[in-house]
Write a structure and sequence with these properties.
The complex is a heterotrimer of chains A (261), B (150) and C (268). Chain A is an all-alpha fold. Chain A has helices at 2-34, 41-50, 55-79, 86-124, 127-133, 138-176, 181-191, 194-220, 231-260. Chain B has 2 domains: 1-34; 38-146, no CATH class. In chain B, a hairpin with a 6-residue loop joins strand 5 (96-101) and strand 6. Chain B is elongated and about 80 Å long. The chains are: A mainly alpha (261), B alpha/beta (150), C alpha/beta (268). At the A-B interface, helix 2, helix 6, helix 7 and helix 8 of A face helix 1 of B.
């Protein structure tokens, strides 16, 4: 009994520590980013990895989600005789919710996990120490480009996702169910306001920062984790952890942003 | 070569993202920032039930403007609606602005009906003839008791 | 005293204590490493060699004590000051620690690119010179994953000396290498001392290379330096523990049968 209370306490303390470390890392990296020299190429490289290489996945999943939404919304709206609202329904749910959330989850799975694994391996093979000994800040050299790239790539990917999802819905509505083209497009244009697009944009920027930050911090600080989870096993457990944590962070902050804005 | 390739692909990715974004912002969002040339008119309503900023203004079923602002007038207990009318759309002094509903559960919009006076309203002036929102219940009861609608 | 000291000694350690989660790893270490010579820190696994090295590199803050490297006290200096010292240091890690996303040449150039404004051509020439010194010129464009163990160590050495450091740290240079490659590396270390006048600190437990390269030896055991001196002095030492290490005897565990039995049965 006492033992289990102790365990709960230990878990709470270690997760608080982790959160503190993560945001501390953000502050450090942000500060270091302001110091010269400024380099663009590392950011481009990371954007290629996080963004460009995720495009196919995002396009395929975007079209699929759009088509599924089109199908489901059509079936529901048909019961109320309001199929005219199909465009509005698909567009609203994609732009406000599904676009940013789905894109972020995809990026977590594809790029986030490998960011954590990469940094974790660099840590255990002393590559991080080597950087420090060369008087190069690992924060600026390793993490800053990833954070900036995540911050920029996730919103861009979200926009692509939104676009192709709307196209998927359009395809289902207009070609499968024979809805007049104008009613889908007008429903979309009338329902979506700039505030909706802006909400989606704000969400995706925050998600982008959050997932790269969590994935970077988990990998970078893997040596501070539980004793006994070092080495290759440590990297794999820290990677799993990072994916779980950043997915939860995305979903929870999605709710928070939705509630606050 | 490898470096160039990488930069090229990243560039394509960024352009794609920006293009998708501008499509949404301009076409769908119908952005408030992309304000069409036009002028503003005011109108007072007793009841606008459910009309919102950004709502559509139609004349003869064609979109001719948007609702830009809604305020509450505590003195008269009325709603003051600011209407943004597109350029080239004349609104006569006795034109009627009515709050209507698209379909049964659809959104509220403002329907403009032309008046007969030759004098036109200009920027900042007020439409005096207004019809408030008609609720479904009122409509039904009107139909039942008078045997005619509108 | 400190100015006099820093002229003769590249590194001087005084009363260094390091605790790690309530366990004392280093207790009261004192050591002077003279300029331009090779100091080998030897000792069995778990003696605290690695911890001492990490303190010297500024990767670990000691609990107490002072640690002067090239005149700066690393133990109390700010990161900015530590980095000023680090630019004059080169480190070759045990596993090489080459950046796996960069080619051998890119690895070696990194410090030059980050800390100097040299043009591309100069950087390339300097890289080739260092690669040539370690006999790695043909491997210039290989990735670290394509290198053998010995090549990795040599590439790491080339990276460590790219800035012509005053101080070179080498962690386990011959660990995991075949005897001839290990001998090659030992020769390389001696050449570096003679041609570039570097102060070299080598951490190792390989007896063969220790006596080939060392000018001075510091023997560590249980978080303490138990003996320092020239190779001759160390060989002549009467300390039984050192004699045990030199003669490759297993560590004696002085536990009486009773206690041992109780330990095995878990005190039942």
């Amino acid at each position: 009994m006492l033992k289990s209370i102790e365990n709960i306490g230990a878990i709470v303390i270690s997760s608080l520590e982790q959160t503190g470390r993560t945001f501390n890392l953000l502050l450090i990296v942000f500060w270091e980013l302001l110091q010269p020299p400024y380099r663009l190429y590392p950011i481009v490289r990371q954007m290629y990895f996080i963004g460009a290489r995720s495009l196919t996945l995002i396009i395929v999943s975007g079209v699929t989600i759009g088509m599924v939404l089109g199908l489901q919304f059509y079936n529901i709206l048909e019961r109320f005789g309001a199929v005219d609202l199909l465009g509005a329904g698909v567009a609203l749910s994609v732009i406000r919710e599904l676009g940013p959330v789905m894109t972020s989850l995809m990026v977590v799975g594809r790029a986030g996990s490998s960011i954590t694994a990469e940094l974790g391996i660099m840590r255990i093979t002393e590559q991080v120490d080597a950087l420090e000994c060369m008087a190069i800040s690992p924060g600026k050299f390793l993490i800053a480009p990833k954070l900036v790239a995540g911050l920029l790539s996730v919103p861009l990917l979200t926009m692509v996702f939104d676009f192709v999802a709307l196209f998927g819905g359009y395809f289902v509505g207009v070609y499968m169910f024979g809805l007049p083209e104008g009613s889908y497009m007008n429903g979309m244009t009338d329902a979506i306001e700039w505030v909706d697009v802006r909400l989606g944009l704000v969400k995706s920027v925050i998600f982008g920062l959050l997932i790269t930050l969590i994935c970077c911090a988990r990998g970078f600080y893997m040596h501070l984790g539980k004793a006994g989870s070092q080495g290759a096993e440590g990297v794999s457990s820290v990677t799993t952890d990072a994916v779980v944590m950043s997915s939860i962070a995305v979903l929870f902050s999605d709710f928070l942003i939705g509630a606050l804005i | 070569m490898k470096r160039l390739n990488l930069q090229l692909l990243t560039g394509i990715f960024v352009m794609l993202g920006l293009a998708a974004f501008s499509y949404q912002a301009v076409t769908i969002g119908g952005g408030n920032f992309r304000q069409q040339p036009g002028y503003t008119l005011m109108a007072r309503f007793d009841n606008i039930s459910g009309l919102r900023p950004g709502g559509i203004i139609e004349a003869a079923g064609v979109r001719v403007g948007t609702v830009s602002k809604i305020e509450f007038d505590p003195d008269n207990y009325q709603a003051i609606v600011t209407l943004r009318i597109n350029e080239g759309v004349p609104v006569q002094e006795d034109a009627i602005a009515a709050v209507r509903t698209q379909g049964i559960i659809g959104e509220k919009y403002i329907k403009l009906t032309a008046g007969g006076f030759p004098d036109l309203l200009s920027d900042g002036m007020q439409i005096t003839e207004t019809e408030s929102a008609v609720s479904l219940e009122e409509l039904v009861s009107k139909y039942i008791f008078s045997g005619s609608s509108e | 005293m400190s100015t006099d000291n820093s002229q003769r000694n590249a590194i001087s350690i005084r009363n260094l204590v390091v605790d790690y989660s309530q366990r004392r790893i280093l207790s009261d270490v004192n050591l002077d490493i003279p300029m331009g010579q090779i100091m080998v820190i030897m000792g069995q696994s778990g003696a605290g060699k690695t911890t001492l090295l990490r303190c010297l590199l500024g990767l670990k803050k000691p609990t107490s004590g002072s640690l002067h490297i090239l005149g700066t006290d690393i133990a109390s200096a700010s990161l900015r000051e530590i980095n000023k010292v680090r630019i004059q240091m080169g480190v070759a890690f045990q596993g090489g620690a080459l950046f796996s996303s960069m080619s051998v040449a890119e690895n070696i150039q990194l410090a030059l690119r980050e800390h100097t404004n040299l043009d591309e051509k100069t950087i390339e020439i300097m890289t080739r010179i260092k690669l040539d010194m370690v006999n790695m010129l043909p491997a210039e464009h290989l990735m670290p994953a394509e290198l053998s163990g010995g090549m990795t160590k040599r590439a790491a050495l080339a990276r460590a000396i790219i800035m012509d450091p005053k101080l070179l740290f080498f962690d386990e240079p011959s660990a995991g290498l075949d005897p001839s490659t290990a001998a090659e590396l030992d020769q390389l270390i001696i050449t570096l001392k003679n041609t570039m006048r570097m102060t070299i600190v080598v951490v190792t437990h390989e007896l063969d290379s220790i006596f080939k390269i060392a000018d001075h030896i510091a023997v560590m055991s249980n978080g303490l330096i138990i003996e320092t001196g020239t190779p001759q002095q160390i060989t002549a030492s009467t300390n039984p523990e050192i004699q045990g290490m030199l003669n490759r005897k297993p560590r004696e565990t002085i536990v009486d049968t009773d206690t041992h039995l109780r330990r095995l049965t878990g005190g039942v």
